[in-house]
Amino acid sequence: MEPQKSLLWHEKLAKCFSLPQRHIVALLFFTATFNTHTHIAMLSTTLPEMVTRSNITLKFNVTEICESFNTSLKPPIENPTLVYDYSEHIQGIILSSFYWGFVTTYVPGAFFNDELANKYIFGLAVLGSTICTLVIPCIIFLEHKNWRMLIALRVLAGLFEGIVFPAMDSMYQHWIPPTDRITLSVIRTSGGLSGTIFSFLLGGLLISATEIWSSVFYIFGSLGIAWFCFWQLLGYSRPKHNPFLTTAEKSYIENNLKNREKRSWKKIPWGKVSASVPFWMLILGEIGHNWGWYLMMTQLPRYLKTILNFTTKETAYCSALPFCFYWFWSGVFGHMFDLFLKTEYVSLTTLRKTFCVVGALGSGIFMLLVSYAACDGKAVVAWFTVAMSFMSAHSVGVKVTVHDLSPTYGGSLIELVDGFGNISGMMVPYFVGLIVNHQSIHEWRYVFWISFFAYATASFGFLIFGTAEVAPWDPLFK
Question: Strand, helix or coil at 242?
């Protein structure tokens, strides 16, 4: 009779939840991704408000500086003790420092994702990043504007977040059956983009309302603490550990995952993979796409604020807008891709290459147009928005081709591709800080030309040497 009572207790407890437990886990993953991306993006929003422009020397003609530069535009933060004289070079290091830590733990974490797939490791990694976010204002105030401590905290936050994504991916494989994977994957992955949009939008509005940049860190940090509390109450590493799971849902998950093969990096033929030119083209394509992505994510608020002299509110809305279009067009391009594929008039490889080249060159060209639009704010925002819309074609181009190249090992190899792709996050802000010393349109034109060549190199490399055919080293090769 005792087992029957235990089962009855669990069934009654499970009825307290209107959603299936796997959906609750997917929502927790969504909010974890949302929170971690707000931590990543918030410094892009706050840094332009934290620094003074007194260090800028007008080296170029007045036509290279937008008209409102020398006007008495009222800054949102008027307290001189809350703004700092960080050079452009230092700002570039600050913005890139997060990715120093992120890449350091992400790539090894991808190798040991099953070992990291633990409720407490995952939760503490998110919490660690949250605490690093919360203490940034305190450390800066106590250390008298010491930018070195700010960089140290950002590196530490990156180290924590590099663990988050491999651990989450492995737990996801244990929780979500293939029948639910597409829908719940969309929910999970959309957390990153929505977190970036939310950070740009709410961050700017908070600074404008409170007239202090530290409010952004406190609000977003508090959201991370709240997430950690919910995760401790409702999150579990495996379905078998969850006491709220009904017998029916447990059977559904187990039956759909019973043939799941445990991923093992030891089974991958690394010698053949490392000698595979198409595989290296995927890494090159990811680095090229991420060059443009990180240029937008780390520099867009800065460009609007320092070049076009937008107000903080205008910067908030106009920074979020291109990413909203990226989100929308990702779905449109995905639907278009499926329609073209069903016609069977073009091969899978041709479609992947087409979307890759169109997305990369379209994004690169419209970024170039930004610098030639000079001080026309409406045109600049329009070109940035169109550039991000084209960039979203990457989601059906290079991004998923690793699964075509290796259906057997794709789930593991994509994490390696993503890890190398994040090198762009380390490089882009640093090089922008080196090039843009005087915040002139002339200097930014160099930045956008470099971005265009990064896109062109990556897309043409994939166009010439890439393929969506199954690789000879994959067991499913015929």
Answer: coil
